[in-house]
């Protein structure tokens, strides 16, 4: 997903823009000092084409967890938090989001103002989730076991992919009717998914698929995880000219997994009537069925 753009109805063309400047697994070691050019190109295209509405798919990682490991507990869009980042992914997303929000009110072809907003999904799960697939395959190779690496007390907010998509549909529609309210705003994407540690949440889906999580507390000391993450980062850098090495554990993913980040907000409901389309039970069932199908497919 990405920015969603649209003109005044009818019909209501809406543009969505996410931007791929720096993916977690393939991010460059160097962080550019300027916003990703793709985002600027999308904004300029809106201006030249007279497209009036733009929704940017941002990320919770624009806010945090930050590089200092500060927790964000049941926060909302207005909660004060020191957004300090070193990894290219949150840095590039933050730059792109700022560019989109600053473009709100800019005149497009025809003289109308450009109306922009940004959606910030928390950790997305559901069908097609590559990392969930990787965890399932890893656990299958280890005899149906995954080993706890993060304390159960470290909570994360997660959101089902179908509800993220539904929020995009709603905001793209309502942006045209409530431009004065929604323009220049940011919204966390949320639903009724429970707050749990990253690993315990994943086991809601992997457990019914035959995997078990070993250990009530981390089996490896944190300093060893830091060392392994740093080693993976070094290995990734050394292998970059030859092949794409994308380990699940690296300094950034370890820091994110080991820092509480949960969201509690109703801003999207108040501003454009958002309610989750999929309940937690439906989201869980759909994800379990997808993981099971993934296992059946890999067995052939």
Key attributes of the depicted protein:
single chain, 300 residues, alpha/beta, Rossmann fold, five-stranded mixed sheet, two-stranded parallel ribbon, NAD(P)_dehydrat-like
Q: Element order, helices and strands?
A: EEHEEHEEHEEHHEHEHHEHH
Going by helix content, strand content and strand pairing, the class is: alpha/beta
State mean pLDDT (0 to 100 scale): 87
Portion of residues in helices?
A: 40-55%
The number of helical runs is 10
CATH architecture: 3-Layer(aba) Sandwich
Query: Biggest sheet, open or closed, and with what strands and sense?
Result: 5 strands, mixed
Q: Could you name the CATH homologous superfamily? A: NAD(P)-binding Rossmann-like Domain
Pfam families: 3Beta_HSD
Keywords: Membrane, Oxidoreductase, Transmembrane, Transmembrane helix
InterPro entries: 3Beta_OHSteriod_DH/Estase, NAD(P)-bd_dom_sf, NAD(P)_dehydrat-like
Organism: Oryctolagus cuniculus
Compact summary:
The protein has 300 residues and is an alpha/beta fold. It has helices at residues 37-49, 88-102, 130-141, 161-177, 179-182, 198-206, 222-239, 251-257, 267-272, 280-298; strands at 3-6, 15-17, 53-57, 72-75, 115-121, 123-125, 145-147, 158-160, 185-189, 212-214, 261-263. Helices cover 40% and strands 14% of the residues.
Structure description:
- The chain crosses the membrane at residues 219-239.
- It comes from Oryctolagus cuniculus.
- InterPro entries: 3Beta_OHSteriod_DH/Estase, NAD(P)-bd_dom_sf, NAD(P)_dehydrat-like.
- Pfam families: 3Beta_HSD.
- The protein is built from ten helices and eleven strands.
- The chain has helices at residues 37-49, 88-102, 130-141, 161-177, 179-182, 198-206, 222-239, 251-257, 267-272, 280-298; strands at residues 3-6, 15-17, 53-57, 72-75, 115-121, 123-125, 145-147, 158-160, 185-189, 212-214, 261-263.
- With 300 residues, the protein is α/β, with parallel strands linked by helices.
- Strands 1, 2, 3, 5 and 9 form a five-stranded mixed β-sheet that branches. Strands 4-11 form a two-stranded parallel sheet.
- The longest helix has 19 residues, at 280-298.
- 40% of the residues lie in helices and 14% in strands.
- The chain has a single domain (37-293), classed as NAD(P)-binding Rossmann-like Domain (Rossmann fold).
């Amino acid at each position: 997903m990405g920015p969603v753009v649209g003109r005044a109805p009818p019909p209501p063309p809406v543009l969505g823009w996410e931007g791929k400047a720096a993916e977690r697994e393939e991010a460059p070691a160097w962080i550019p000092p300027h916003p990703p050019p793709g985002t600027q190109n999308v904004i300029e295209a809106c201006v030249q084409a007279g497209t009036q509405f733009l929704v940017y798919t941002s990320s919770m990682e624009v806010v945090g967890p930050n590089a200092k490991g500060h927790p964000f507990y049941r926060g909302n869009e207005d909660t004060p938090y020191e957004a300090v980042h070193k990894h290219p992914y949150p840095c590039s997303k933050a730059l792109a989001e700022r560019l989109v929000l600053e473009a709100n009110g800019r005149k497009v072809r025809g003289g109308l103002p450009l109306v922009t907003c940004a959606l910030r999904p928390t950790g997305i799960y559901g069908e097609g989730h590559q990392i969930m697939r990787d965890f399932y395959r890893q656990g299958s190779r280890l005899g149906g076991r995954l080993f706890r690496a993060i304390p159960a007390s470290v909570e994360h907010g997660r959101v089902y992919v179908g509800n993220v998509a539904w929020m995009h549909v709603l905001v793209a529609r309502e942006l045209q009717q409530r431009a004065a309210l929604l323009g220049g705003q940011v919204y966390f994407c949320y639903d009724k998914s429970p707050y749990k540690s990253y690993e315990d949440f994943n086991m809601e889906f992997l457990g019914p698929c035959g995997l078990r999580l070993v250990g009530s507390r981390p089996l490896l000391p944190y300093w060893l995880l830091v060392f392994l993450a740093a080693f993976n980062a070094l290995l990734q850098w050394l292998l970059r000219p030859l092949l794409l090495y994308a380990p699940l554990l690296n300094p950034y993913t370890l820091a994110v997994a080991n820092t509480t980040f949960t969201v509690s907000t109703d801003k999207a409901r108040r501003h454009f009537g958002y309610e989750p389309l999929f309940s937690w039970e439906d989201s869980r069932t759909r994800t379990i069925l997808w993981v099971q199908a993934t296992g059946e497919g890999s067995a052939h």
